[in-house]
């Protein structure tokens, strides 16, 4: 499993978002505090997406602490909205750049902190609902990449809230025991689910942060209960049961 973070607020460098706080996403790559049986470190790559005039992305199969892009390139890139993740690959899944979140399409960026139980057999029926052209375009042979395909298809006809609810129901019915903390952003708003894994939010009038773990000791962090859908933007936070 992984750790991920979504940020919307005052313009900062992507590096600042990733390294913010005593328990930053960077530190969570080697010292996560709440993996819930999903491994001990997140050293199988990382990625970041950020919004400006267009949606841009950087991904690497290197551990985030050894990739020079973080102190160099990503310290120069500034944005008001960032979605980033560090990866812990599920046993049997490839460790490669294409398998790292965020996955992107148009103005959407997506990450999964979790795993699909019984992969890949459990996903035969849900995957069969996708157009063949989408399956042929799967970025990597991983549960997260397929999950992104399902979410992307659901977004074609539904709001983000409905899309995430539909996919959560579809996957948990097909693969009981899955851990499905999904994170979705469009540069203006963030959406996330909690399903058998940890998630916290930090929202005030200036910023909205959704994170697998609080990155500092700010007392305004809110732990989201399991089985909930979160919608967040600065000054706005809604948490509803899935």
Automatic annotation (TrEMBL):
What Pfam families does the record point to? GATase_4 (PF13230)
Keyword Hydrolase attributed: yes
Q: Which GO terms describe its biological process?
A: ergothioneine biosynthetic process
Instruction: Note the Gene3D superfamilies from the entry.
Output: Glutamine Phosphoribosylpyrophosphate, subunit 1, domain 1 (3.60.20.10)
Keyword annotations for this protein, in alphabetical order, are: Glutamine amidotransferase, Hydrolase
UniProt EC number: 3.5.1.118
Pathway assigned to this chain's UniProt record: Amino-acid biosynthesis; ergothioneine biosynthesis
Q: Name one GO molecular function term.
A: hydrolase activity, acting on carbon-nitrogen (but not peptide) bonds, in linear amides
Instruction: Supply the InterPro entries for this chain.
Output: EgtC, EgtC-like, EgtC_Actinobacteria, Gamma-glu_amide_hydrolase, GATase_2_dom, Ntn_hydrolases_N
User: Has the keyword Hydrolase been applied to this entry?
Assistant: yes
Q: Where is the Glutamine amidotransferase type-2 domain?
A: 2-242
Q: Show the catalytic activity.
A: gamma-L-glutamyl-hercynylcysteine S-oxide + H2O = S-(hercyn-2-yl)-L-cysteine S-oxide + L-glutamate
- The protein depicted here goes by the name Gamma-glutamyl-hercynylcysteine sulfoxide hydrolase
Q: Organism, per UniProt?
A: Rhodococcus xishaensis
Query: What is the gene called?
Result: egtC
